[in-house]
Amino acid sequence: MADGDDLAELAKRRGFFFGSVDAYGGVAGFQTYGPHGASLKDNVETAWRDRFTVREGNHEIEAPTVMPEAVFDASGHTDDFDDMLVRCGACQTPHRADHLIEDETDIAEAESMPTAEAESLIAEAEIVCPECEASLAGEPVESFNLMFETEIGPGSGQAGFLRPETAQGIFVEFPRLKQYARNSLPFGVTQIGPGYRNEISPRGGLERLREFTMAELEQFVHPEDDGPSLEPVADVTLPLYPAPAQADPDGDVRELTVADAVSEGVLTSSWIAYYLGVARRWYERVGVDVDRFRFRQHNPGELAHYASDCWDAEALIGASVDADRANPEDGYWVEIAGFAYRGDYDLSKHAKHSERRYTVFREYEEPQTVERVTVDPDMSVLGPEFGGDAGAVRDALETLAERNPDAFDDEEVTVEIETDGAPADGDASDADGDSDTDAAEGGNDSDAGDDSSVETVTVDTEVANFTVEEVTESGEHVVPHVIEPSFGVDRTVLTLVDHAYREDVVDEESRTYLELDPEVAPTTAAVFPLVSNDDRLVALAGEVAQTLREHGLSVTEDESGSIGRRYRRQDEVGTPFCVTVDRDGIESEGAETVTLRERDTAAQVRLPVADVAAELTALIDADSQTTFADLTERYEVVETGTRTGVAETDTPEP
RNA sequence: GCGCUGGUAGUGUAGUGGUAUCACGCGACCUUGCCAUGGUCGCAACCCGGGUUCAAAUCCCGGCCGGCGCACCA
Questions:
Q1: Which nucleotide's C1' atom has the smallest distance to the CA of A205?
Q2: Is A500 a member of any domain?
Q3: In chain A, at which end, N or C, are there fewer CB atoms within 10 A of the end residue's CB?
């Protein structure tokens, strides 16, 4: 039922969310949450924290939103967000200039070249538009950066960026965070906060923002970790849309339990499987319609640079549904979360760029005895003999010792070094076996050798100080792998409002209401005097409202207009309960009573004033399982004659 | 970013080269009825800048914002 326009109108009129800075013409990609929206969003974040931080025993941190350039150089965002565009003057199609140059010339890496150089290369190579074959020579190459750049400190302060994801704030602090987790895997770190992307063309209100809120969990695990016990979520049914099914015209979403999805191999990571199960339940808890929800696997070509597998949670929004919330029509799918297997990509990158240790020490079950070869060259001999090349000789000896220990059996040992006087290429540190994507860089060794020569040098084996020793290793340093469930909070809020949007009929009058879950609804209860010309009712309503607020409940008061109008106002913003003070409640024998009305059914019960706070608290508690129906068992049901229902003439949306 | 299209009270709208219609809404008072649309009174708008014109909210140009399509969404 949620027509996009109706929803946007409601959100604007009733203060959920709206475009920011209207007074100055507005600014695309930014939305302001009004009072109801901010409350709803905060409740969503609280529910997320409860589930993904507290109940998982994870650790929440809060990192800065501004980070120095080095962080994003390491994470790969500086490169990936700084793209060169050239626009065809004839057909206006924009192209990645660096990709064109890589395709049309023998330059393998054009991404980091200056735009001026790219422009002249395009002209020299006579590159044409792939669309219409018009010449691109002379067209300006513009770089655009999806990260917001800023300067840290005055003057020539260091370059900084507003973070495009919260994750790096966790990754960079890993060496410390692992201490807090007592150096043992697995552990998870969460963060909720804003991220920034200078989108080229933000559109669709909350759907695509330049500043948006993410709730992210980085689950650090041992690379050979068997995964968590799936027992808690084994029976949860997942609507899975695997990559092969998307490519198949007959492919469709499969409803599989977590256990079956793993045993059938649809889900290959049990950590992903576990969190899909947890997420599926959480979404249902906060009010996502499970009939308009699925997990879609990324196609191989769609994966981000850091991910080896990724499943998105997607919600169908803008769809019209029938009275039973079934058979959604039209609408479109939006990504509301991603569950990525990031491997050791991020930690390895930070380890390399920062030269800190991004590892966890893991003890073997049994200490292992291994032979270790070492060379500890006598630099007091090598130094005088080789001068500036002494360091290169030492490095060459170390490399040789690892590759061919037998070479040290003779009295002399021979190695080859490059003698260009320049410091040895720092690539020696690459020998730690990590497999970065630096294959392309490695290819330039031959170019660099122009003014250097390879020289063979001979060293006394004794000077090399070669030893083979048996050492006992009690464990190893491993770079953890990361499983990242990353939630878009704004899109979740949008989905909740969209899925909660209802139209039905009360006493032959149509009404619009939001069937928000009581746990996340902006206002838990509204308190009314039935009529406002009776001071006793007004006074008691005020007292009840104050009492409820002191119990931590979000409460609004309203004595303006007819009781029916006030109920509708609350229905429209999704307030699940209304408390009404009437004369029957204060004039009859015994304790004062009030009526409690439930939003969706408009049914009422009468209960003592003293019970209201406790009952409402139970109703919004996700764990208590208390529902309004339970109250109808325990309290007197008020017969009002009012009935809700869906309009019989359910005309489809135009 | 390109193309098309739009921008009038809080919201949705009508309309015009001479400052504006209606509805809902909101407020006050009357009414006190358990499910919005009883009564009276009131509040509140032509996106911004430039041009044409005696006069521009209206016509023209540019900008900003929205919608749709394309592109983009590591």
A1: B66
A2: no
A3: C
Residue A186, preceding peptide bond in cis (omega within 30° of 0): yes
Q: How far apart are alpha carbons A49 and A530 in whole angstroms? A: 38
> What would the pLDDT profile of A379-424 be if each residue is shown by its tens digit?
777 777 777 777 777 777 777 777 777 777 777 777 777 765 444 3
Q: How many alpha carbons lie under 13 Å from residue A450 in its C-beta half-sphere?
A: 3
Q: Is the CB of A19 under 7 A from strand B?
A: yes
With a 7 Å cutoff on the CB, does A202 touch strand B? yes
Same domain, A16 and A98: no
- Cβ contact A582 with chain B strand, < 7 A: yes
Say yes or no: A232 and A104 in one domain.
no
Would A577 be classed as within a structural domain? yes
User: What is the total count of domains within chain A?
Assistant: 4
Between CA A8 and C1' B47 the distance (Å) reads 19
The answer as to whether A125 is a domain residue is yes
Q: Check which CATH number belongs to the domain holding A318 and give it.
A: 3.30.930.10
The whole-angstrom separation of Cα A280 and Cα A292 is 12
Q: A277 and A175 in one domain? A: yes
Residue A612 shares a structural domain with residue A519: yes
Q: Which strands, in side-by-side order, build the sheet including A509-514? A: A509-514, A501-506, A644-645
Distance CA A164, CA A346 (A): 15
Is strand B within 7 Å of residue A80 (CB)?
yes
- The CA-atom distances, in angstroms, between A416 and each of A177, A391, A395 are 43, 13, 10
ipTM: 0.90
Residue nearest to nucleotide B36 (CA to C1'): A565
Cβ contact A210 with chain B strand, < 7 A:
no
Q: Model confidence over A73-101: pLDDT tens digits?
A: 888 887 766 666 776 665 555 666 766 67
- pLDDT tens, A208-263? 999 999 999 999 999 988 899 999 999 999 999 999 999 888 888 999 999 999 99
Closest residue (CA to C1') to nucleotide B48 in the complex: A25
**Domain region containing A124:** 82-145
Provide the residue type at A226 as one letter.
D
**Distance from residue A372's CA to nucleotide B74's C1', rounded to whole Å:** 42
Residues 143-162 of A with CB under 7 A from strand B: 146
Tell me the pLDDT tens digit for each residue of A126-179: 777 665 666 777 777 766 678 888 888 876 678 899 999 999 999 999 999 999
Q: Which of A145, A171, A193 is the last residue of a domain?
A: A145
